[in-house]
Amino acid sequence: MSRTTDRITADRIRLSVVGIGPGDYDMMTGRAIWALSESDTIVGYQVYTALIQDYFQGKEYLTTPMRQETERCRLAINEALEGKKVAIISSGDAGIYGMAGLMYEVLEEMKRESVQPTAVPDRLDKLKSIVIEVIAGVTAANGGAAYLGAPLMHDFAVISLSDLMTPWTMIEKRLLACAGADMGIVLYNPSSHKRHDYLQKACDLLLQTLPATRVCGLVENIDREGTNTKVCTLGELREIPVNMFTTVYIGNSNTKIIGDKMVTPRGYQI
After folding, report:
1. What is the CATH number of domain 141-263?
2. 126-178: pLDDT as tens digits
């Protein structure tokens, strides 16, 4: 099957939104490696560009701090308009809590701005020529699951505990809905300096429905230096310190521990 880029004509501008995976180079997809190798300029959050600079040398790296995602997208688009081959990166998968959706939104906003009386002539035509190519990566949910064993063999949901863009009341509603549906749950962003007790709050909420013996697991620093895994119960999980680089797994009613691994049966006949 040909790449999307093979069908982009010479009069179009390709802007790649690349998921670089959860950690090391060997967890990146082949297409992500190809896109970054072909790029002149790589744009990203400074923590993530630092992860790949040794593997993609000779590139121009442009960074913005955390919580400047919109500015990062505008920077990437403006670089592409200068004729450069640009890739903007996200950790994990760009379409899962990453930059892909925002890139589409920002490009449309810049097109609207370009029809204003003060806009640069021909800018709209150039913006219309940009083709956003989203390149999949390995997200933390399945990257960490491989370390734990096989916790995601059946239906599951991914929920971020960060309330920067989602009200905590909505997060609570989603946690309870998944618990009531007996779904496995993967928690992203379980803690930070300002949200040090959010995993405890989530566990307290889940314990209203789920037993304290429910099998859980966590992986810290997935596929990076200091990768650490632990299988535990929901009651024990509540007391375990975590950070923003930890991914948490809560099993369904059939999840069990085999050896030292967390396994959710799919239902195959043995």
Report:
1. 3.30.950.10
2. 999 999 999 999 999 999 999 999 999 999 999 999 999 999 999 999 999 99
Residues of the chain under the 50 pLDDT cut: 1-2, 4-7
What are 80-92's pLDDT values in tens digits? 999 999 999 999 9
Predicted TM-score (pTM) of this structure: 0.91
Number of CB atoms found within 10 A of residue 67's CB: 9
* Six-digit token string for 194: 């300002």
Q: Give the homologous superfamily in CATH for domain 4-138.
A: Tetrapyrrole methylase, N-terminal domain (3.40.1010.10)
Distance CA 192, CA 195 (A): 5
Domain boundaries, the chain: 4-138, 141-263
Exposure string for 80-105, b = 16+ CB within 10 A, e = fewer: bbeeebbbbbbbbbbbbbbbbebbee
